[in-house]
Design goal:
The chain has 345 residues and is an alpha/beta fold. It is built from 16 helices and seven strands. It has a five-stranded parallel beta sheet, with helices on both faces.
Length: 345
């Protein structure tokens, strides 16, 4: 590598050159010379480094989840902020929460530099617009919300400005990055956000292409934050998504199957239960396992903050903590349960 000249080089050039995500990967310097299969093997080997790197940040990810859960329980919202690939990953996670967990669209929102156009076509210059980031934050975010900044390289001006503005207004903050090292002339780690998740994935297979390992790492972290937060809020029973919205035929059939798996009832009964529950999977499950009607199931879920597990314990202290096998569930149902099709429909 050529040594940088000591003078005449813009500071930002020196700063970017020092980023781990901008380093040359010594394992992939022959990518343009090897066969297709060999190139794929090299990329696959690099990808296998991502999961262990994410695993090393589980402590900080857990802190982020606790922060998010606390905000959501107090009626706040989650805002993802990013540019380029990072911004698009925030859009994906925010968009997928409503159909998966039955959350209102306002609960998880995404702010991407360059606006909606940047989702489909790169707006690279938009990542430098710090004033725009601050204006958007002031317009959308309140101190009751949590802002999660996403920037693989850690220095993205749009994201740094958004986090700074969020902290200025008193909103809790999380920063997800793939650069574990502090940058020159940037705030100390503790000053960037309340929680910093720095996944050290090393240099990219193609220098600077953070859509690769960096993007994979960010996606894994966002999956963990949103999924475990929703688990804590009662959106999952065992490992079944019981608050999904059946907005397609596939999701309708999945809803029926989840009811069958959770209760051990046959297909036709699960279909009737889902209909009687007004399309709510968790209400149908509670109805089936307690033998009560829709209003009784709704009341139990209201008392248990939407948790199927706690609702069943309220109705029957000896009820299973998690979904069991179909045979054992049938044995655990109350003997006084109203037979399907009679009385409660």
């Amino acid at each position: 590598m050529t040594k940088l000249p000591p003078k005449g080089v813009p500071r930002i050039f020196d700063e970017i050159a020092a980023l781990p995500t901008e380093a040359i990967n010594p394992r992939t310097t022959k990518l343009d010379e090897v066969s297709i299969k060999r190139a794929l093997g090299l990329l696959s080997r690099e990808d296998r480094m991502v999961a262990p790197a994410v695993g090393r940040e589980l402590g900080n990810i857990a802190r982020a989840v606790e922060l998010v859960v606390g905000v959501l329980r107090r009626g706040g919202r989650v805002f993802y902020v990013g540019a380029g690939t990072s911004g698009r990953l925030g859009v994906i996670d925010a968009a997928e929460c409503p159909p998966t967990f039955g959350t209102p669209p306002r609960l998880f929102q995404a702010i991407i530099a360059g606006g909606p156009r940047a989702v489909f076509r790169a707006q690279e210059g938009s990542e430098d617009r710090q004033a725009e980031a601050r204006r958007i934050l002031r317009r959308l975010v309140t101190p009751c919300d949590v802002v999660i900044g996403l920037a693989a390289c850690r220095r993205t001006p749009f994201v740094m400005a958004a986090l700074d503005e969020a902290r200025r207004m008193g909103a809790p903050t999380v920063y997800v990055t793939c650069n574990p090292k502090p940058l020159r002339d940037t705030p100390r780690r503790a000053d960037v956000a309340d929680v910093v998740i720095a996944v050290d994935v090393g240099p990219e297979p193609i220098m600077g292409s953070t859509r690769m390992k960096g993007g994979t790492a960010e996606k894994m972290v966002l999956n963990m934050i949103s999924t475990v937060s929703m688990i804590q809020l009662g959106k999952v029973y065992g490992n079944l998504m019981v608050d999904l919205r059946a907005t397609s035929e596939k999701l309708h059939q999945r809803s029926v199957r989840i009811i069958m798996l959770a209760t051990g009832c046959p297909h036709g009964e699960a279909v009737r239960a889902l209909r009687a529950a007004g399309g709510s999977v968790k209400v149908a499950i509670v109805m089936e396992l307690t033998g009560g009607g829709r209003q009784a199931a709704l009341a139990l879920l209201a008392k248990s903050d939407g948790s199927v597990k706690r609702a069943l314990r309220l109705e029957e202290p000896g009820a299973p903590a998690s979904p069991a096998s179909p045979a054992s569930r049938r044995k655990q149902r109350p003997s006084s349960r109203t037979p399907p099709g009679r009385g409660r429909r």
